Amino acid sequence: MDTFTVTATELKNNPSEIINRVHYEKQTAFIKRYGKIIARMTPEINDKPKESFNEIWDRYAGAIPGISDVKKFRTLNTHRFKLKI
């Protein structure tokens, strides 16, 4: 795992540069103040799998008459819409 160390002053002066390194380059930043490590910034790991096209289609396609039913996924404002499928 790639790591780098920055001082609190560097973080104050260049926060976007450090945040970009953590986010885009997936590096861990250790922040020092008075020579001691006081904090660590690590990149967020997204474990949530992306939805497949079929899952998205099944959820939204019911808005078009004649295509699969979306009523079973609708949880809010069900009283506003009258779908006759």
Describe the structure.
This protein is an alpha+beta fold and 85 residues long. It has 2 domains: 39 residues; 29 residues, no CATH class. The protein is 28% helix and 20% strand. It has 3 helices and 3 strands; from the N terminus they run βααββα. The protein has a 3-stranded mixed β-sheet. β2 and β3 form a beta hairpin. The longest helix has 10 residues. The N and C termini lie far apart (53 Å). The model has no long low-confidence stretch (mean pLDDT 82).
**How many β-strands, per DSSP?**
3
Oligomerization:
single chain
Structural class: alpha+beta
Provide the low-confidence segments as ranges.
none
Largest sheet: 3 strands, mixed
Brief summary of the model shown:
With 85 residues, this protein is an alpha+beta fold. Helix content is 28%, strand content 20%.
List the helices and strands and how they pair.
Elements: E1 3-7, H1 8-13, H2 15-24, E2 28-33, E3 36-41, H3 53-60
Parallel strand pairs: 1-2
Antiparallel strand pairs: 2-3
What are the defining features of this structure?
single chain, 2 domains, about 30% helix, about 80 residues, three-stranded mixed beta sheet
